[in-house]
Amino acid sequence: MSHFRPVELHHASRLINHGPTVLVTAAHGGRRNIMAAAWSMPVEFTPPRIAVVIDKSTYTRELITGAGAFGICVPGAALMDLTYAVGSESGRDMDKFAHYGIDAAAGPVLGMPILEQGCAAWLECRWIRETHTESAYDTFFGEVVSAAADARIFDNGHWNFTDQNVALHTLHHLGAGKFVVAGNQVQATFPVSK
Amino acid sequence: MSHFRPVELHHASRLINHGPTVLVTAAHGGRRNIMAAAWSMPVEFTPPRIAVVIDKSTYTRELITGAGAFGICVPGAALMDLTYAVGSESGRDMDKFAHYGIDAAAGPVLGMPILEQGCAAWLECRWIRETHTESAYDTFFGEVVSAAADARIFDNGHWNFTDQNVALHTLHHLGAGKFVVAGNQVQATFPVSK
After folding, report:
1. Rg (chain B; Cα; Å)
2. pLDDT at site A194
3. Residues of chain B with C-beta less than 8 angstroms from the C-beta of A85
4. CA-nearest residue of chain A to B159?
5. CB–CB of B184/B178 below 8 Å?
6. What is the pLDDT of residues B93-122, one digit of tens each?
7. CA atoms in the 13 A half-sphere facing the CB of A80
8. B82, B173, B186 ranked by CB distance to A18: nearest
9. Which of B80, B183, B191 comes nearest A180 by C-beta?
10. What pLDDT does residue A190 have?
11. What is the pLDDT of residues A79-99, one digit of tens each?
12. Which residues on B lie below 8 Å from A99 (Cβ)?
């Protein structure tokens, strides 16, 4: 049984606000792919828009520009090895979903591959073509049109990292397969001025 | 005594690769400011370039476009309250450095304010003007021209999160002053295909 629940679009930026490494997916013309991306960020709350760096050499980039859309999935800690693997191999010559036994569904609005098993959240994005930044910085922009999260860690618009949901704690790639896991949730208070 | 050591520019992107919330600084015409930014990412390894979202309403944006440069500091967990505070108040009417007793030095190449006390790393960036993305997505691009990190947590081009350097573990903003701290460092291995 899935624990995923829809996330209101004005809360969608929160799903990647804290800088998790994400999985980028796309499907077009009967082909599909999934890759890892450490470089993504929200750029606007409403409408919810994000930026993600997609290298020119990637197969995913071809599929995104073909489909006009992409998916973003936020893997939990339990998917670390898979995240590293799909970020290290190209999907040109193999279907990574089949190869790694990834159970993907089609997103409700754009049909992009979305993962729930092991993930904390997903977002479907409509590609916003920005020829210059794509060329100069490999930076793609997208508008989030649907999103959902596992209610055990993100509910009612808020993250809730606890000792009971460690498998869903987000991954943050340091480089070369080395990750830190975000886990210790704390609330800031205003400091007294000096 | 400072534990900061220079970071080679081809390693600079690693300082924000894992999505930490950062402090953005700028100084121009005798004024200076510091704000928090959860939305930043590297966009290229070599030359090291980054993107960061700077809202049109911010005083920092005025200073960046005036100076043609900005600083990025990566606060450690011990600076959580300060990070929240400088991200919540405008520097138009006060000098946040003086107000909060922030000890900033001038960066070696561009003279941007840099913090070492309590921070894990800093980067000085030359602003790359991109009128369209600044207007449409508040997204600023910059090229890193100098960088340094506290050798107790980043040394020889690599992060090293341990139980001995928790005060320098990076902050990742979830929203409304709620942060997760990245701490549990783990190494991925390739999964066996299904």
Report:
1. 16
2. 58
3. 188, 190-191
4. A174
5. no
6. 899 999 999 999 999 999 999 999 999 999
7. 25
8. B173
9. B183
10. 80
11. 999 999 999 888 998 999 999
12. 193-194
Q: How far apart are CA B132 and CA B137, in angstroms?
A: 8
The percent of residues in chain A predicted with pLDDT above 70, rounded, is 98
Tell me how far CA of residue B59 lies from CA of B89, B92, B99, in angstroms.
10, 6, 16
What does residue B178 show for φ and ψ, rounded to 5 degrees?
A: -95, 125
Q: Is the ipTM of this complex over 0.90?
A: yes
Query: Residue B184 and residue B181: Cα distance in Å, rounded?
Result: 9
Tell the CATH superfamily of the A4-181 domain. Electron Transport, Fmn-binding Protein; Chain A (2.30.110.10)
Domains of chain A, residue spans: 4-181
**Residue written as token pair 């830190």:** A180
Q: Measured between alpha carbons, how far is A125 from A109 in angstroms, rounded to an integer?
A: 9
Determine contact: B129 vs chain A, CB below 8 A. no
Q: CB within 8 A of A99, min separation 6: which ones? A: B193, B194
Q: How far apart are CA B152 and CA B15, in angstroms?
A: 14
Tell me A14's DSSP state.
G
Does the CB of B174 have a partner CB in chain A at under 8 Å? yes
pLDDT digits (tens, 9 = 90+) for A67-79: 999 999 999 999 9
Largest CA distance in chain A: 62
Share in percent of chain A as helix, strand, coil (round to 5):
20, 45, 35
Identify which of A51, A138, A186 has the shortest CB distance to residue B181. Answer: A186
Query: What are the tens digits of pLDDT across the range B8-43?
Result: 999 999 999 999 999 999 999 999 999 999 999 999
